[in-house]
Design goal:
single chain, mainly beta, Methylamine Dehydrogenase, Chain H, 3 helices, 9% helix, 45% strand, globular
Amino acid sequence: MTSITISGEPTNDRIIYAGCWDKTIFSWSAKSKKQLHRFQGHADFVKCVLWAKLGTQPILISGSADASIIIWNATTGTRIHTLKGHTRAILDLQLDPAWTHDPSNSGTEIVLFSADTVRDIKRWRISVDSALPEAAESISPHETSVNKLCFEAPSMAEEGVVDADLWTASSDKTARHLVRSRNWEADTTLEHPDFVRDVVVSPDGRWVVTACRDEEVRVWDASSGKLACTYSGHYEEVTGLVIVEDGLAVVSVSIDGTIRKWSLEASEIQKTREEAGNGDVKEQTPEEEPKESMMTAEEEAELADLMDSDDE
C-alpha cells in the first residue's frame, strides 16, 4: 500500500481509500470494515490518492507512476477524467485552498496541484464536465523530484482575494517556500543533507516541519527560515508527517516500522535545542558507518522501484 485518503463527508460512515503497488485503489467502509470498490485504470504503481468534492459529487483523485492522473466518481468507482501532461511518475496531489475558499467559487470546480519526479508542478482546473491545465507552464523550483506539496492555511490577502503560499519537499535536498503573489518564486530554501521526503506547516503558520532520508525530523521557524530544533529517534528514513492536536504536535512515520510523536510547543522545541547544544543540521561524517538495513534485499529492491527509481 502506497497512500491513503479518507472521505471528508460529515457522516457516521467515512470511506477509506488506499492506493496500491498492484496499480489499483481499494475502498472500505470505516464503520463496517467491508470493501466497497476496487478502482482499476492505471498502468503502473498508484503513488498518491486524494478525496475531494465537485459540487455535491464526491470524487477520488489518483496519481500514478504511469504519469497520469485519474478523476473517479468516489461513490461508484467509475472514471470521470484522465489528465495527461506529466512525463514521469506523479508523486503528490493537493487542492489549492485559495480557490476552495474564494468567495467567487461556486464549488463546482477545483484547482489541483500535482508534482512529479522530473521536478514539475502542474495546475489543473477540474469540473464534472472538463479537466484542463490551469496554466501553460509548469512551476519548477527544484532540480529534481518534488516529493510533497503543502499549502499554508488560506488568508485574505486583500478584499475579495484569498492567498495561500506553497511549501515543497524535494530530492534535491531542499524544502522551499513558493510565494503565490510572486508567481510562485521561492523566497526561502531549507537545506538538508539528504532527500526531503515530506513537509508540513503548523495551522498558525509558525513552524515548518520536514522529514528527511537522513532519519531526522526538523522543525524550522517559518518566518526566518532558521532551524528551531532537530528531533532524533528514527533509525531509518522518515517518509511522512502529519500535524495533530491542533498544531501542538507532529507525527512522523518511518521505514524503521515506527510512528513517533514530537511536540510543536515553543517551550519543548527550545528545550530540545538546548539539550542538543545547537540547532545545526546534522551532517554525515566519514567516520560514521552506515546502519544495517532492517529490510530484506527483495524489500529494498521493491522500495527502490517505488520511491527512488526516478529520483536521479
